[in-house]
Amino acid sequence: MAPHGEKARAENRGLVEMGSDHWLDALLGRAPRRPAALAVPRADSALKPIPGDRGLPFIGMGLHTVRYGPAFLLALMRRHGPVSWWQAFGRKVVAVAGPEAVQAVLANRDKAFASGWPAVIGPWFDGGLLAMNAPEHLADRRLVQAAYSEEAVRGYLRLMVEDLDERLDRWPVGSRFGLVSAARELSGQITTRAFLGVPHEGVGQRLVGAVEECIRAETALARVRLPGTLWHRAHRSRTWLIRYLHQAVPVVRARTTGEDFFSVLSRVEGLSDRQVALHALFTVIASHDTTTAATLASVYFLGKHPAWQERARAESVGVVSRDAAGVDRLATLDLVVRESIRLVSPSPILMRVAVKDTEVLGHHIPAGQLVSVCTGVNQLMPELWSQPHRFDPERFDRGGDSGHRLAWTPFGWGAHKCIGMRLGMLKVKATLDALLRRYEWSYPESYEAPWRFTSLPAPNDGLPTVLRRV
Ligand code: HEM
């Protein structure tokens, strides 16, 4: 199933190396790096400053970050070591990469790091687990965990699978369409009933639209609440979402039988109505784009590797039940998804901020410093993976290759590790299973998806795809 020779060497080159073929790559390649030290410690300190690149004034290396994602951060690590820094759009960010540095931040015994997401993306995660810190984080996580029991997750999956069939039957056959928007729309369609307990048509669509407005604002450069701006619209959407969900909690709780996430969460003892609303809202934000990104990456690699697609389809057709037990039997899809999100990690960096002066691997990190934990870099390091650029799902069966516990962490690691990992994997595999049962697709050998990393990774060209009925 593996390509050989030149083809194998060229495979996914753009994911592990900064490109050189396009005129924009040539331009970015010539941009000045302007190396400089950050956080120079006091003269009597044994600690080292952080080496890194300032890049262009204000923009810094921001365009490199968006265009190359983890490949840029891998190159930064090669140039400066596991603790380095770069500037992007006026912000100086420390990058930690490699298993030791990542572990030093995510499992920091000194409790020197807090969630850095609010500082980077804005208030859109507020009230959700990822914006919280100890001890409130731990207390809320324990309570929210009840909504992720195996029984509850099986219920959410049941609702999603019912919707999947109906929606996928309407996808166009024989004509080219953009898979990026189709996959995002599908994720929204199957999210509303399973996560919020409302049908998609009508209020469900409005809820998802408002959530997407908040997600889009995560990358806004102009962060002012002036009418007409993305930031302003996202604030209005969030206010409406919280009000809608807050008012709905007592109604949903009184129903007592709802199987969807919002209903189950509303019945968890110890959470106030407002907490239920905020956690439900963050859950939709946390699950929508991540599962879309994982689905897109898997569809892309299945289309580039027809033998894997055939093997996965044969397994899907052979498994009759479509519940969690059935999805758990799709061993090939499990390998494919794991390998796809190794190569294209939906969340390749995790944001943290130093809450006091501290150090990582002997480098001084001052209080207030933003730190980007580059888990996506670890997933591409030749020190941790053999031929990391190659799509080779069987590597997860062979063992050893991914042996280091911090080599494969698309769901994060430590206190904030994804609480929805099981549900996320089930949702992605169930979506692919439903797709494989109906359609086949492929991408030309010469086609390499132009992944971009503005927010979560997605092909810049919309991933044009033609489906054929099987
Ligand atoms: C393939 C799909 C998914 C991926 C790749 C993913 C990835 C992640 C990552 C990397 C984190 C940790 C972020 C950090 O430490 O800064 C995280 C946290 C989280 N995820 Fe996911 N996620 C996925 C699906 C889901 C789903 C389906 C849900 C809920 C239904 C969910 C809910 C959450 C929540 C609530 C947190 C915060 C946990 C905490 O702070 O304690 N995720 N996810």
Automatic annotation (TrEMBL):
Keywords for the protein's UniProt record, in alphabetical order: Heme, Iron, Metal-binding, Monooxygenase, Oxidoreductase
Keyword Nucleotidyltransferase included in the entry's annotation: no
Domain of life: Bacteria
InterPro entries linked: Cyt_P450, Cyt_P450_CS, Cyt_P450_E_grp-IV, Cyt_P450_sf
Cofactor(s) demanded: heme
Entries under PANTHER family matching the protein: CYTOCHROME P450 26, LANOSTEROL 14-ALPHA DEMETHYLASE
Sequence similarity: Belongs to the cytochrome P450 family.
Protein name: Cytochrome P450
